[in-house]
Amino acid sequence: MSTFKFPVSRKDFKKSSWSKNNPKTCVEVAIKPEGVAMLDSKNPNGKILFFKNDEWQAFISGVKNKEFDI
Hints:
24% strand, alpha+beta, 70 residues, 1 helix
């Protein structure tokens, strides 16, 4: 498990536009120069996941290429 982290505050997070119509599947992201942080907006005091920029870009590419479709 990665120990990669950077400073982030609650005001840095933005809710996914997709979540507005799907309140039970909400995520929020904070895009910073150091990387991207993500949390579950239903549990804002829960664990924050941190991604390096290249990791986040790989994830976005995977979503666009439907690598995670069931």
